[in-house]
Amino acid sequence: MIWILIAIIAAYLIYHFLSGDIRKASKVIAYSLNVKPTMVVECIGSMRTDPSPALGKSSRQQYYCSSVIRAHGNLEELGSLVKVFYICQILKNPHDENVLWWANRLKDCGFDSQITALDRQTFEMFFEVEHSAFKDFTNEHNKMFI
């Protein structure tokens, strides 16, 4: 009986240790945009997990989480990282009403809804997308808000 309790506690501690950065990063973004953290966790979970030569041994997903945690409180630095989540949400559901809802959410929380070339490049670093089609998508998105 005691071994089962010890195994459950050990499993919880391992889970807590391994998922710490994802939970912290999701809370930072979720509270910045006033959305549920589970939406952000879903987005982070769909990121590329392969390591980038420029990032050393950490995966792109780990790098995103650590960047969000470091940028906490700095809206300028957090802006491009929030845009990664924003783009993920509008790609998941590109319906006009959904895009407008997310754009208004960003504006209400102090972020710009225009997708710049830097935002596009940042998103491409964390997600696998076809470059020219994604560029066309962001151009159409930006025309919608001009």
From TrEMBL:
It comes from the Bacteria. InterPro entries: DUF1198 (IPR009587). Pfam families: DUF1198 (PF06711). This is DUF1198 family protein.
